[in-house]
Design goal:
The protein is α/β, with parallel strands linked by helices and about 230 residues long. It is about 45% helix and about 20% strand. Bound molecules: S-adenosylmethionine (SAM).
Amino acid sequence: MNEKQHAIVGMFDKIAPTYDIANRILSFGTDIGWRKEGIKKALELGNSQNPQILDVATGTGDMLVFWEKAVVGDASYVGVDPSVGMLEVARQKVSFAEFHEGYAQKLPFEDAKFDFLSISYGFRNVTEKEEAVKEFARVLKPNGRLLILEFAKNESKNPFRIAAQWYVKKVLPWLGGLISGNLSAYRYLPNSIEGFLTRNEICAMLERNGFEVEVAKDFSFGVSSLIIARKK
Ligand SMILES: C[S@@+](CC[C@H](N)C(=O)[O-])C[C@H]1O[C@@H](n2cnc3c(N)ncnc32)[C@H](O)[C@@H]1O
């Protein structure tokens, strides 16, 4: 992997021990509702009978915890992330899942293995995004569902979104820095959102790589976005 990608993963290694607590405090718990809604919708659209679920950029495995609560009956749960530090926390926290070290650009799984693939607040960190989308299409079964949650770039002038952006740019780096002891890691968040794609740009990337977008919506006036797409 390239140097930029290594630096991003190294940063997550450093903040791994305080990642969960910082996440909940910095988001005031609002991410919980966004995660639950995305998973509920994906399960309604896809094959919810004994599904094989992969969470890419799984971090500390949070998304898998929400998948497990929402699925009725048996399922298999797999998480993948390149950060050894994040995976260490995930393995201690989420006993029902198996975890693998790996990058979204080169997933260590066979073709057409999974019914669902989620990536929450991780796509921004992938340096070769189009390669990753091709990998998502490869490992999903036909009619499998891709679920993306992200802080997409958004230039709307809605006052709530502008206030939220002020919080993310001016307050969050200091608070995150205080909790984690790593200011530069939390300065990376607003910068990575500014350099990222819009929701429509992500949808276009999915459509040109074998997906049909079924859900594309914003939460909290565009602070976070949800995309669900069907592998054709
Ligand atoms: C903000 S965390 C999100 C973790 C988790 N999905 C969540 O919702 O809390 C981003 C994660 O992306 C991972 N990551 C960075 N680059 C990646 C890549 N190229 N492929 C897969 N995961 C990556 C990091 O190691 C980190 O665990």
